[in-house]
Design brief:
Elements (H helix, E strand, L loop, with lengths): L6 E10 L3 E3 H6 L7 H6 L4 E3 L8 H15 L8 E5 L25 H9 L5 E5 L6 H15 L5 E8 L8 E2 L2 E2 L3 E9 L5 E9 L10 H22 L9 E3 L5 H11 L20 H11 L8 E8 L3 E8 L1
Parallel strand pairs: 4-5, 4-6, 11-12
Antiparallel strand pairs: 1-9, 2-3, 6-9, 7-8, 10-13, 12-13
């Protein structure tokens, strides 16, 4: 491997909104489409809910500070900041109040606010959007590419978070949605959680998740299997070479199906003690944070991260601890 092309995860943190409501409370408030019993069978029991008026900013700020601490880096060490958000309102600061719309509100970017809050004085700033739940994967992909192509840069901070609007349904295609955020520091020559391979399959046919919902559900497993197997094959790996599958928080049964289709033993899927639902783009990194923090992954073990995002994109990422 060429000098300087080893990129790894030097720091990571995922966080959930502190307040939560159980399935029965969500149902009584009309925030679910399915019966509580059905969702419990799918592995859901609660949703973490942030204050919509505050937006994703506070969650992202907390995750970013913790990721920097995990990486043992100061804010001035960061050369690049990438903000990721699946929903459009996640990219701008909350409204300042009042009833009249101001065109400048759309230019009050969360990325610039975070740069100032953290004191990232040496960082270039950009944002990634329109990838749904796979937006954070895209942010990491962009960050790695910039680190490789610009040798003067050593550390990139990728952050992401989404908070659903007030009164929005907490169920999307039989999945319960929580508010959360994550932050990942990618660093040159960081050998822990080294980037091994990435693959994305995008299909614009599924651009409308309302009109194409049945087609999305029909295509989910075939394209998930394809993107995972193509990722492994491109890097000379077999399904059995994956030691840990780091899932999203979607329907737990779907991971049993997917691992059988791919040929990875089902017991390699990381299962946390209690489901928090699906946070749109932070799930995989909440789990990676827990695995690292609790010493549940050993040096040399390979981890597979997979996600699907509206738009639609299927993504697979392999890391080696």
């Amino acid at each position: 491997m060429p000098d300087g092309s080893v990129i790894g995860v030097s720091g990571v943190c995922g966080t959930l909104a502190a307040e939560w409501r159980d399935i029965d409370a969500l149902a009584s408030d009309g925030l679910l489409s399915s019966a509580p019993g059905v969702l419990r069978e799918f592995g859901f029991n609660r949703a973490h809910m942030a204050n919509p008026a505050s937006g994703a900013g506070p969650l992202v700020l907390a995750a970013a500070r913790a990721a920097l601490e995990d990486a043992a880096l100061s804010p001035t060490d960061i050369d690049l900041l990438i903000w990721a958000g699946a929903r459009p309102e996640s990219h701008v600061r909350p409204p300042r109040g009042g009833t009249s719309a101001d065109v400048f509100d759309g230019f009050r970017y969360q990325s610039a606010w975070l740069q100032e809050e953290l004191g990232l004085d040496n960082a270039d700033v950009l944002a990634v959007a329109q990838q749904g739940c796979s937006t954070m994967f895209s942010a990491l992909r962009v960050a790695r590419s910039i680190l490789i192509s610009e040798p003067s840069r050593s550390h990139a901070l990728c952050v992401g978070g989404d908070v659903l609007p007030a009164g929005a349904s907490r169920e999307i295609l039989y999945n319960v949605i929580s508010d959360g955020a994550c932050a990942v520091v990618l660093s040159r020559d960081a050998m822990s959680d080294r980037w091994v391979g990435f693959r994305q399959i995008s299909c614009g046919f599924y651009a409308d998740p309302i009109e194409r919902a049945p087609e999305i559900m029909a295509a989910y497993f075939p394209l998930a299997r394809q993107v995972i197997l193509e990722t492994l094959d491109a890097h000379g790996l077999r399904p059995d070479d994956i030691d840990i599958v780091i899932p999203t928080g979607v329907n737990q049964a779907s991971w049993s199906i997917l691992t059988r289709l791919v040929g990875i033993p089902e017991d390699r899927v990381y299962r946390r003690s209690e489901s928090f639902g699906h946070t749109i783009l932070a799930d995989n990194f909440i789990h990676l944070h827990e695995l690292r923090r609790d010493g549940l992954v050993r040096p040399g073990q390979r981890m597979l991260l997979f996600t699907y995002g509206f738009g639609s994109s299927w993504c697979a990422l392999v890391l080696e601890h």
